[in-house]
Here is the input.
Amino acid sequence: MWKSKIHQIWLTIVLANLAMLLFAVQSWCRLKLPPSMADVRDSAERAPLVFRGHVLIVTPIKTNTEPGTRVESIAKIQVDRWYRGKGSEEALLRFVYSGEIFANGHDCIDFRPETYWMVFAVEKNGQMEMIDDCEGALTISPLLGRDLGTGDWLAQMEADFLAGLNDHDSTARLSSIQRLGGLKLPSSRDALHGVIENGNDGESKWAVYAALRTGDFSVLPRVRQLLAVGDRELPESAMALQLQSVTDPVAVPDLITILQSAAGDLTRDCVLTALGRN
Here is the structure.
């Protein structure tokens, strides 16, 4: 009998741990990368409607002032550029935002008047909404590049993000650097190297990360210097994670050097993954 009781106790423990694991997995599934690491190209390819512009007004659909309430609203956006799909000069975008800590990675984006966004959208039941409530829009600089008029939306996005590098606002400049990294275009490298050499400390670091995302292995010595100090904060942790995607054998000597000088376990694990693929 005692063996049966022990078996039941262990079974209960196993089932409880399994339930906790499943709950954790469900939560992990909604963990999102920060906007600074967003994959702009992937989001644009998944969205049938992609545009940029600034918010004119936000109108709540239902008025509810209770703390922690998810507020459903309509953002009226003045469109500066359509990249994919076609629409009018003004877009009405339905969204939901929670003012509290975002539960399970939902309702993360808060559109406010006079803020500038790139939106990845889809039409559902006659209303436009984001393809993802946490990754469906990104803050951008208000500056625009020239209209290329070619229909090449990747090139047009790049031209607009490059224009944002000259924004007088440091936050807007930083977002432009990060968005160029998210496009992953080799043609952005010259501009990013200019930021690496001439930008402030934060801009230079993010430009290193952005260049690495374009497949520019010439920045690996700079990556080594940064990761030799640590990899717990952004953008260093983002650089470490990006190293997993480096599979060109040409980069092996630099990867080994990074491995030898790395200060953090994250960097070492990511480099070993890359070397294993090589």
